[in-house]
């Protein structure tokens, strides 16, 4: 983008950043950290973000990973000077970056919020929780058709699995995923501080390694793996005109929205591996067109909807899983989007919504979810497809009243 500006100033143990923090600004920040920590031997570093003006989500995972590595391996103590810009300050905290700079002062963002935040995972179980959490958030914030959702779910699973399977990263992996504002593009970034793609594949040239890694069938172990993960993810980005990047040590591969691939040598290495991928969920034919292995269209098996909601005769959602609170309109809006996405995706016909353990909801919440859902679907479809189960009588009364009022006023 024109007009972007980024500068790093170092003064002993203080590193000040100015302007727009994005993936391209990462090397100069990494270099300043290296100078202060490995050359000048400072153990306490102040990261002065007061003059930061913008920050992309994609930079959050690699930065968090790198800072965590420095805290763990070099025992560095980081202090954050917050951005002067109030909105950016709030974002830095809600995205979780503040926590990975100074975990004593900033708590980890709450897991049940639908706001994007970076999640660290250290093993397979934590990875599964992290992936489910991001897919859950996407279903609350975007309108997603089942096939596209399955594609995103597949790609996020593959790239995070690579961290656990190949990276040997001592700090695990860092995942962040969000919808690009005013589009239906899902963007995710996964970063680790492990051995990197070249070492894993046993290729000396790091540029060649990142290029090879995204080819179909390229794997470090033919007997246990297929070499589909990076290839399929790259194809999904390419097929939906999204950006794709794979950076590992000095190797840097970047694919533009127009599909142009640039491979170059990064002068300042990224310690580990970083993948950024955008998938545009606007296109219903994406999977058929882009998602092909050995020339054949591939349909991901056991997708999120099936794993989470289709294990019984009828589809089921637990209200606790899709709501932050049962009081606000915002929370209700997110819950309705989630329910609509599942309702449209499932072939089960009926969807049960389980209200066990919930004893009160606000009228505005009940209206936002059930009043509007009733009007949107129409009475017959609502009655035939939505079943509220295990609801307390007060809750049922509130839902009933909300539907009555909403049918009088319309949407
Ligand atoms: N985070 C990572 N750290 C180190 N090496 C990686 C990482 N991600 C991928 N690689 C290397 O790139 C290769 C290709 O990855 P890809 O996901 O395409 O295939 P795979 O994991 O080997 O097989 P599959 O994904 O089909 O199970 C891996 O075999 C590994 O050598
Ligand atoms: Mg893989």
Walkthrough of the structure:
With 411 residues, this protein is an alpha/beta fold. It folds into three domains: 1-107, Transcription Regulator spoIIAA (2-Layer Sandwich); 110-301, Heat Shock Protein 90; 310-409, Transcription Regulator spoIIAA, CATH 3.30.750. Helices cover 43% and strands 24% of the residues. It has 16 helices and 14 strands. It has helices at residues 26-39, 60-74, 86-94, 97-101, 124-141, 146-167, 197-201, 206-213, 229-239, 286-290, 304-309, 319-322, 329-345, 363-377, 379-385, 393-409, and strands at 6-11, 14-21, 44-55, 77-81, 119-121, 173-179, 185-192, 244-255, 261-280, 292-293, 296-297, 315-318, 351-354, 386-389. The strands form four sheets. A five-stranded antiparallel β-sheet has the order 5-6-7-9-8, with helices on both faces. It has a four-stranded mixed β-sheet with strand order 1-2-3-4, with helices on one face. The radius of gyration is 23 Å and the shape is globular. The relative contact order is 0.09. Bound molecules: adenosine-5'-triphosphate and magnesium ion. The site of adenosine-5'-triphosphate has 25 residues, from helix 6, helix 7 and helix 9.
Please write the string of helix (H) and strand (E) elements.
EEHEHEHHEHHEEHHHEEHEEHEHHEHHEH
**Oligomer kind:** single chain
Number of helix segments? Answer: 16
Task: Write down the CATH topology of the largest domain.
Answer: Heat Shock Protein 90
- Please state the average pLDDT score: 94
Strand order of the largest sheet: 5-6-7-9-8
Helix proportion of residues, in percent? Answer: 40-55%
Fraction of residues in β-strands: 15-25%
Secondary-structure-derived class:
alpha/beta
Instruction: Report how far apart the termini are.
Output: 39 Å
Strand tally = 14
Number of domains: 3
Largest sheet: 5 strands, antiparallel
């Amino acid at each position: 983008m024109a007009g972007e500006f980024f500068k790093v100033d170092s003064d002993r143990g203080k590193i000040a950043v100015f302007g727009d923090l994005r993936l391209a600004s990462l090397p100069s920040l990494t270099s300043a950290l290296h100078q202060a920590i490995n050359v000048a031997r400072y153990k306490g570093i102040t990261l002065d973000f007061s003059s930061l003006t913008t920050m992309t989500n994609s930079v959050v995972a690699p930065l968090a990973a790198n800072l965590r590595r420095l805290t763990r391996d070099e025992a560095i103590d980081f202090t954050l000077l917050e951005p002067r810009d109030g909105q950016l300050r709030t974002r830095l905290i809600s995205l979780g970056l503040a926590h990975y700079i100074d975990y004593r002062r900033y708590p980890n963002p709450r897991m049940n919020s639908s706001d994007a935040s970076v999640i660290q995972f250290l093993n397979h179980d934590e990875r599964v929780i992290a992936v489910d959490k991001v897919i859950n958030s996407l279903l609350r914030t975007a309108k997603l058709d089942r096939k596209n959702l399955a594609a995103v779910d597949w790609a996020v699973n593959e790239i995070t699995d690579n961290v656990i399977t190949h990276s040997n990263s001592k700090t695990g992996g860092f995942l962040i995923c969000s919808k690009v504002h005013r589009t239906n593009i899902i963007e995710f970034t996964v970063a680790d501080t492990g051995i990197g793609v070249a070492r894993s594949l046993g290729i000396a040239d790091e540029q060649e390694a990142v290029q090879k890694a995204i080819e179909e069938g390229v794997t470090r172990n033919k007997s246990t793996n297929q070499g589909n993960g990076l290839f399929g993810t790259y194809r999904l980005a390419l097929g939906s005109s999204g950006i794709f990047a794979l950076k590992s040590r000095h190797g840097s591969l970047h694919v533009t929205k127009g599909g142009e691939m640039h491979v170059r040598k990064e002068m300042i290495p990224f310690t580990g591996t970083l993948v950024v991928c955008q998938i545009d969920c606007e296109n219903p034919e994406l999977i058929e067109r882009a998602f092909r292995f050995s020339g054949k269209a591939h349909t991901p098996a056991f997708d999120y909807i099936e794993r989470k909601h289709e294990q019984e005769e009828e589809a089921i959602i637990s209200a606790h899983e899709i709501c932050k609170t049962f009081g606000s309109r915002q929370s209700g809006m997110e819950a309705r989007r989630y329910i609509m996405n599942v309702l449209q995706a499932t072939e089960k016909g009926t969807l049960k919504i389980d209200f066990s353990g919930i004893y009160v909801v606000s009228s505005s919440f009940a209206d936002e979810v059930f009043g509007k859902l009733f009007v949107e679907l129409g009475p017959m479809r609502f009655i035939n497809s939505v079943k509220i189960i295990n609801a307390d009588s007060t809750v049922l009364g509130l839902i009933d009243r909300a539907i009555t009022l909403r049918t009088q006023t319309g949407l």
